[in-house]
What we know:
The complex is a heterodimer of chains A (424) and B (194). Chain A is of the alpha/beta class and 424 residues long. Chain A has helices spanning 19-24, 29-35, 39-48, 61-65, 90-97, 99-113, 127-142, 174-181, 210-222, 224-230, 261-268, 302-306, 326-340, 346-363, 371-382, 390-404, 406-415; strands at 76-81, 117-122, 159-164, 205-209, 238-245, 251-256, 278-282, 316-321. By secondary structure, chain B is an alpha+beta fold. Chain B has seven helices and seven strands. The longest helix of chain B has 15 residues, at 179-193.
Amino acid sequence: MLEKLITRNWGLKERLYNINEYERLGGFLALKKVLSLSPKEVIEEVKRSNLRGRGGGAFPTGVKWSFLPQGQFPRYLVVNGDEGEPGTFKDHALIENDPFRLIEGCIIASYAIQAEHCFIYIRGELEEEAKLLEDCIKQAKDKGYLGRNCFGKKGFNLEISVFRGAGGYICGEETALLNSLEGERGVPRLKPPFPAIKGLFGYPTIINNVETISYLTVIFEIGGDSFAQLGVEDEGGTRLICLSGDIKRPGVYEIRVGTPLKDIIYNIGGGPKEGKKIKAVFPGGISSLPLTPEELKLPYSVSGLKQVGSMPGSGGIIVIGDDICMVWVALRLAKFFHHESCGQCVPCSIGTGWLEFILKKIEGGESSKGDIQLIENITDNIFGKTLCPFGDAASMPIKTILNKFREEFITHIVEKRCPYRVVV
Amino acid sequence: MNTLSFYALPFISCQFLALNIILLTHTDKDYIKLKLLKMPFETDKVHELVEAYPDKKLFCLSLLRLIQKEKGFIDTEAIKEVATFLELPVAEVQGVATFYSMIMRKRMGRYHIKICTNISCSINGSFKLVSFIKDKLGISPYEITPDGLFSFEEVECLAGCGYGPVMIINDDYYTNVTLEKLEEIIKRIKDKGR
């Protein structure tokens, strides 16, 4: 059930913070293989592996890379480590457990897209991880694996810089992240032009998630085709999932893409906590549509969860127990999105505020007639009317909670109180 | 920016209280030039470096973080200083300063406690911690205790959902925080503060 590809060396901690130790455990072998290929061949191999972006968008990585305009330089690689999706903590774990794998992945990706500078954008709160990465980069530089003619490959120059954010969920959106890197407010840009055409400082830029970049090492260790075979038809390989909430064994695990959610929750996670039943599951962070227990038989892949309109997103599986009020969950979502909305588009920045206000009223037992219709109206008016996917992420899960757990909302309104255990 | 014949990238790191500006310049002949500057503000040198780049805005967020590390918070004076320094409109710098949640606009306690109250952490009891702090230290979010030691805020996800509740005090990351653990940490800080 559990796979050991990217997580192979996890748990060694300090030992893996040393470049020689990492190399002794099989590190940099993938990179050596990559450097014997041409950049074009590397991109083809990644395409064959069916690797999809693991940051939430699930866009095929190889395809994204081939969008770069021919012959335009410089190009940049930006690694998105601004992990902020509630329920997701895999990037944090990846950096903490195997930092050199990320560095190796950065070198592979930079070689493939012919970038000479790579930025790792990491959350401002993760002080330790940022220091660790800076130290790893220094070690790699001292060994000649970074810098001029890195790894002895003539004409392949690469610098990696760690950039720390300063808080803000929206900076995880790729164009907002670019704005933040340039020292501006982290607000999303209008697309097109896409970052692959006009990105950081106006140059072609590829933005990939920490996990996506780290998985490149695995692809070249075992080969693109065998990586693709591990997954399902349109999505290859294994992936990291993060289990949290009302579950017995929370944590980060590696599974094959396409494993049924039921197996993940019951066999890997050990099922819900003692004496509880599962009421709902967010399969990919709180931006994904929550599932009911009946829907857990679906395979954990993009196409599998699409059948019910949801997505594996960033891999953050949150299990909600049966003693938790779904109105409160919706309220917590609304509060989060209202707090994190960048304020650029009116439907999102004001709509989320209204959602929070109305849901607070319902949860507090002060609801008035027509509140449910009002929630539906507001979510419909946010969806599809904003610049970035944030608006959709803010509106759809709340609407789905309302649709799937409508009786709870009605009970709140009729009884004018919350019938559940108060979490807050 | 596009007219740049070379691409120059400033990168500011605020590692270990020693405040350095590391600048990576990139030209054909000389590949990497590393300049290490001691902060705070040997202004002449910083000016010299900043002037090498046509878009000074790049420094904005990093400079604000540097100042916050020194001063503890960003007030109007600091914003004006950065604006003059980078030759930007004050409003623009203020825009950046107010956007990011880690940039504090008023003085906080010497130990600023951030508790995650998002779904996973709440399910695991982070609200007990919040009410404990409210009762025990007698402060509401963004207030400071009379001795100036503590302040706290409820924050959104801190990327540790499986090990909740998660808490950050200044730069230290705590997971699986229980009431006993929190009480002990607060006691330890108080003893040290005295």
